[in-house]
Automatic annotation (TrEMBL):
Residues 48-164 form the Ig-like domain. It comes from Leptonychotes weddellii (Weddell seal). InterPro entries: C-type_lectin-like/link_sf, CTDL_fold, Hyaluronan_bind_Proteoglycan, Ig-like_dom, Ig-like_dom_sf, Ig-like_fold, Ig_sub, Ig_V-set. May function in hyaluronic acid binding. Its main location: secreted. GO terms for biological process: cell adhesion; central nervous system development; glial cell differentiation; positive regulation of neuroblast proliferation; skeletal system development. GO terms for cellular component: extracellular space; perineuronal net; synapse. Disulfide bonds join C212-C233, C311-C332. Keywords: Disulfide bond, Extracellular matrix, Hyaluronic acid, Immunoglobulin domain, Repeat, Secreted, Signal. The gene is HAPLN3. This is Hyaluronan and proteoglycan link protein 3. PROSITE patterns: IG_LIKE, LINK_1, LINK_2.
Length: 360
């Protein structure tokens, strides 16, 4: 008598509460999930589940509310509704799972992390499972995936959200290449900004950003944008573009940073004052005017989105002295628009005015 083969049948895992797991792992293979924009399709029992999202990038600004659209339907249409599970998550730079945002089963839902209390599922229309985000933050910019799960079948679609802002290079007061990755993150945050993503830097390059010093990006790579090829910046033989040093060690390697500042919610202005000021006097003058001394990111945003144009150098909160030029003219620096910098002068010098920021 041959050996007895005993087969044990285990029940499929089932979790009554949230979050849930549908028992599948995914890859970016052609037979796996759909990694692109638009919609995904899955067929089960002759019925096709289709998830539809927008193919256009959504643009918004910090502090606003936004809806990331997502709908699903069946082909052919079903006569009776079916219970589904919905999951929203935010992808990292390389498309891997980064952060859970919200999961929902019927009327029950749960949000996670920094999204807790700021997101909800909008189900106003038939088979609508759009994600609403309140009080947008800089960190909310990125790609989001909407997944609809019907039993063992699931399909998903991608929505890209971008906050309006401006990319600017930032150096430590001690000079070039002084920041490791964590210090770059902190430096940008201190200037009312975040470390820029590659997509943000690339778009800035398309708009003409040209900078010969390499800086950290959000994915911990180090890159720099060149609009005009020249010998000191990679040589004349390389075409213009975003040059890359690749990923670098977070604690060991040191570079500058590329920061991303959002569109302003308040006002940046040059304070009319009868005399030039030290850095301490500049901070006090802004306070007396009911404002705060402006940060670098705020000055760049005012130049980019409010057309702030002034030929007077002024102190900023980090101890640098800068001025914004929209219309280049004689005796006002180079012939291109931009924010000019005098570096980090002696804070006791009385050669500059001050730029103040008044929140709305």
């Amino acid at each position: 008598m041959g050996p007895l083969l005993l087969v044990l049948l285990y029940p499929l895992p089932c979790v009554s509460g949230l979050p849930f797991y549908n028992g599948f792992y995914y890859s970016n293979s052609p037979n796996g999930w759909n990694p692109g924009n638009g919609h995904g399709e899955g067929v089960f029992n002759g019925v096709k589940l289709v998830v539809e999202t927008t193919e256009e990038t959504l643009f918004s600004h910090r502090g606003a509310n936004v809806t990331l659209p997502c709908h699903y339907h069946y082909e052919p249409a079903l006569l009776s509704p079916r219970p589904v599970r919905v999951k929203w998550w935010k992808l990292s730079e390389n498309g891997a799972l980064e952060q859970d945002v919200l999961v929902a089963i019927g009327l029950r839902h749960r949000s996670f992390g920094d999204y807790r209390g700021r997101v909800r599922l909008r189900q106003d229309g038939e088979r609508e499972v759009s994600l609403q985000i309140r009080d947008l933050r800089l960190e909310d910019s990125g790609r989001y995936r909407c997944e609809v799960i019907d039993g063992l079948e699931d399909e998903s679609g991608l929505v890209e959200l971008e906050l309006r802002g401006v990319v600017f290079p930032y150096q430590h007061p001690w000079g070039r290449y002084q920041l490791n990755f964590l210090e770059a993150q902190r430096a940008c945050a201190e200037q009312d900004a975040v470390v820029a993503s590659f997509e943000q830097l690339f778009r800035a390059w398309e708009e003409g950003l040209d900078w010969c010093n390499a800086g950290w990006l959000q994915d911990a790579s180090v890159q720099y944008p060149i609009a005009r090829a020249r010998r000191p910046c990679g040589g004349l033989g390389l075409a213009p573009g975003v040059r890359s040093y690749g990923p670098r060690s977070h604690p060991l390697h040191r570079y500058d940073a590329f920061c991303f500042a959002p569109a302003l919610r308040g006002q940046v202005y040059y304070l009319e004052h009868p005399k030039k000021l030290t850095l301490a006097e500049a901070k006090e003058a802004c306070r007396e005017d009911g404002a705060h001394i402006a940060k670098v990111g705020q000055l760049f945003a005012a130049w980019k989105f409010r057309g702030l144009d002034r030929c007077d150098a002024g102190w900023l909160a980090d101890g640098s002295a800068r001025y914004p030029v929209v219309r280049p003219r004689p005796n006002c620096g180079p012939l291109e628009p931009g924010v000019r910098s005098f570096g980090f002068p002696d804070p006791r010098s009385r050669e500059y005015g001050v730029y103040c920021y008044r929140p709305r």
